[in-house]
Amino acid sequence: MGRTVSRRTLKRLVKRSKPHLRLSGNTDLLVHLNFLLFLQRLAEETRTKAIAEKSKTIKYEHVLSSAKVIALKS
């Protein structure tokens, strides 16, 4: 899977939002991996929510409620 944001851009965005932090060389990779883990967790939670409601398709409401649950757990 290719990246849509370059490593340099990601580093610049992190540095702009948190200028006082010192970043190591692989910080952008860790941010990317963290994002992928979040997406996987969101997909699993959403699928569980859709199955619990006996829905054959995942709807916007399922994703929204799952995101709220994940935000509360984190």
How would you describe the overall organization of this protein?
By secondary structure, the protein is mostly helical. The protein has a single domain (7-73), classed as Histone, subunit A (Orthogonal Bundle), CATH 1.10.20.10. Helix content is 69%, strand content 0%. Helix 1 packs across helix 2 and helix 2 crosses helix 3 (60-73). The longest helix is centred in the middle third of the chain and has 26 residues, at 27-52. The radius of gyration is 16 Å and the shape is elongated. The model has no long low-confidence stretch (mean pLDDT 88).
Short description:
With 74 residues, this protein is mainly alpha-helical. The protein has helices at residues 7-17, 27-52, 60-73. Helix 1 (7-17) crosses helix 2 and helix 2 packs across helix 3 (60-73).
How would you summarize the topology of this molecule?
Layout: H1 7-17, H2 27-52, H3 60-73
Features:
single chain; 74 residues; mainly alpha; Histone, subunit A
CATH class: Mainly Alpha
How many helices? The count is 3
Q: What is the share of helical residues?
A: 55-70%
Going by CATH, the architecture would be Orthogonal Bundle
Q: What about the largest sheet?
A: none
CATH topology: Histone, subunit A
Beta-strand proportion: under 5%
| Low-pLDDT sequence parts | none
Q: What is the arithmetic mean of pLDDT?
A: 88
Could you tell me the number of beta strands? 0
- CATH superfamily, by name, is Histone, subunit A
The count of domains is: 1
**Morphology call:** elongated
The helix/strand class is mainly alpha
